[in-house]
Amino acid sequence: MSPVLVASDLDRTLIYSAAALALTMPDARAPRLLCVEVHESRPLSYLTETAAGLLVELGDRAVFVPTTTRTRKQYQRINLPGPAPSYAICANGGHLLVDGVSDPDWHSAVLARLAEECAPLAEVRDHLAATADPLWVRKHRVAEDLFAYLVVERELLPEEWVKELAVWAENRGWTVSLQGRKIYAVPKPLTKSAAVREVSRRTGASLTLAAGDSLLDADLLLAADLGWRPGHGELAEADWTAPGISALPERGVAAGERILREFLKAARQA
């Protein structure tokens, strides 16, 4: 039988920082949590223990493909339950990992497309440096020499500046995404969906399932046969939906657990 492919965003979709857990229930009813990421000796990301069990079962039933905007180094800090995925997508599609190693042919093809279709990264970096106010910017970062992002003080961030940046980027073939305390500027041709289609081709998948919470996940959801988005994040704030996409009411770590239940249900039915 052809396998089911499950391509899921990670941060604020399956795994959550302490600040994003949204534990709104009474303390005595809070779920038990499993830490899946440690950075500089500090616990960083979690899912529920129930979600951990669901993820292990999902790995037995489907080809599970972590699909993230994280760099390879950031992704490799994560220790998900179950066997290591054969495929993973990092840097928003810029790197396709096969058994943990970036496929050089895929990466070369991505670089060629970016050079042909959008403004260079240096131009975007210079614009961010010239227009972002040090009053609310904490860090300027470049990821894998593919895209840029800022770490900001969200409460001080002017909404108008974000809107103006989005228009400026649009005219140069880039897109802007605001996720928590990070503002991403990403080339439009750099997509999770393109990498997922390549994994689907290689595995011969008969059904593709996906989940994500941000603007950068919209193309991933649209490329899947069935998709889910949580009740938080950019897509929820925009009330974004499309045929085959389910908008879940759950927020925070409870949404991650619900998404895994939906993945398993669909995989069993397939």
Structure explained in plain terms:
- This protein is of the alpha/beta class and 270 residues long.
- 34% of the residues lie in helices and 26% in strands.
- The protein has nine helices and 14 strands.
- The strands form four sheets. The protein has a five-stranded parallel β-sheet with strand order 4-1-12-13-14, with helices on both faces.
- Helix 7 links the parallel strand 12 (207-211) and strand 13 (226-229).
- Helix 1 runs parallel beside helix 9.
- The model has no long low-confidence stretch (mean pLDDT 97).
Number of strands: 14
Distance between the termini: 10 Å
Secondary-structure element pattern, one letter each: EEEHEHEEEHHEEHEEHEHEHEH
User: What kind of oligomer do you see?
Assistant: single chain
Give the class from helix and strand content and strand pairing. Answer: alpha/beta
The helix content is 25-40%
Give the percentage of residues in beta strands.
25-35%
Mean pLDDT: 97
Which sheet architecture does the biggest sheet show?
5 strands, parallel
Counting H and I runs of at least 4 residues, what is the number of helices?
A: 9
Strand order of the largest sheet: 4-1-12-13-14
Shape: globular
